[in-house]
Write a structure and sequence with these properties.
Blueprint (H helix, E strand, L loop, with lengths): L4 E9 L3 H12 L4 E5 L22 H12 L5 E5 L2 E6 L4 E5 L4 E9 L3 E2 L8 H4 L4 E2 L2 H4 L8 E4 L5 H9 L5 E4 L8 H9 L3 E3 L3 E7 L2 E7 L4 E3 L2 E4 L5 E2 L3 H4 L23 E3 L2 H4 L3 H27 L2
Parallel strand pairs: 1-2, 1-6, 2-3, 6-17, 8-15, 9-10, 9-15, 10-11
Antiparallel strand pairs: 4-5, 5-6, 7-16, 12-13, 13-14
Helix pairs in contact: 1-9
Length: 308
């Protein structure tokens, strides 16, 4: 098999708002860009995406389709549907190998790969996640304001998440699926706001057509709820390639970055949820723009000095 070899200024891994925004800025800066995207974003189970100015409520894949269509006029930007299997750092370039066999050589590389969910083992959760059970209230809280809601999950900062969801609905029940990691004072605080705390193990989430109806507990109790927010979706890095290249992870599981998405590896940038754990669509797009501008400034200086 003859491998396809390409040489570009920038390889971008990940085609969400961050990667696409960086590709657009760099393309308009006359840089050759190759963006590789697997076509399976973190929000693919979501019916609508919110909080993105001028596109509020848009379907996730529709947002990408619009971006891909607008990018077609830049013949120096190529978007391919593929998966990156390996990246190697050479003397002054990065060698990226895709699953299709394509090999790309680039001066710089951006990872905008985000996170992937690893949901807790609760029967029926996958049937409702993204339609009536969510993780981000800024994305889905408005549509479920004043609904009978549940907070599902348990962790050290649980009290802060309870306070957050309470902002959208005071008809709230907290279900920790086991003994709550809450202090006595925090439990009293929750109860003082008329929020019920249920520490019994959850047996099943009962739903119809993706819409949550009831939460069934192992002791036989059933509680009706219309929607829920899950405390921790077990999100982990979608790829560990940057770690293989020498970029460390923080205690929170994010890749360690500096300003503009730079890392300790010259020429390697990481943006979006992979670096911040949570940015939202608008935040990711903003980071892509910022990184694209900064990277182009680096190219300008490097190319200028070469000619001296």
């Amino acid at each position: 098999m003859t491998l396809e070899h390409r040489t570009v200024d920038v390889t971008i891994v990940g085609g969400g708002p961050g990667g696409l925004s960086a590709a657009l800025v760099l393309g308009r800066s006359c840089r050759s860009v190759l963006l590789i995207d697997s076509g399976h974003p973190r929000n693919e189970v979501t019916y609508e995406s919110h909080g993105f100015l001028t596109r509020d409520g848009i379907k996730p894949f529709e947002l990408r389709e619009i971006a891909h269509e607008q990018m077609k006029k830049y013949d120096n930007v190529t978007i391919v549907d593929d998966v990156v299997d390996k990246v190697e750092q050479e003397t002054d370039r990065f060698k990226t190998t895709a699953r299709s066999g394509m090999v790309i050589s680039s001066r710089k590389i951006i990872f905008a790969t985000g996170l992937k969910e690893h949901l807790p083992e609760i029967r029926g959760l996958k049937d409702v996640y993204g339609t009536s059970v969510f993780s981000c209230p800024y994305c889905d809280g408005w549509e479920h304001r004043d609904f009978p809601l549940a907070v599902i999950g348990n962790q050290k900062d649980l009290i802060h998440y309870i306070r957050l969801i309470y902002n959208w609905s005071q008809d709230l029940i907290v279900m920790t699926n086991g003994p709550a990691i809450l202090t006595k004072k925090e439990i009293e605080e929750v109860e003082s706001h008329n929020v019920r705390l249920v520490q019994t193990k959850i047996k099943e989430l009962f739903s119809a057509d993706g819409l949550l109806q009831e939460v069934v507990f192992e002791d036989g109790e059933t509680i009706k709820r219309k929607a829920a927010f899950i405390v921790n979706t077990g999100a982990e890095q979608a790829t560990m390639i940057p770690k293989d290249l020498g970029v460390p992870l923080t205690k929170k599981g994010a890749f360690e970055t500096k300003e503009h998405g730079k890392t300790k590896i010259p020429g390697l940038y990481i943006i979006g949820d992979a670096a911040k754990r949570f940015t939202g669509l608008m935040g990711a797009a903003s980071e892509g723009y910022e990184t694209g501008v900064h990277m182009n400034h680096e190219f300008v200086e490097e190319d200028w000095l070469k000619k001296e």
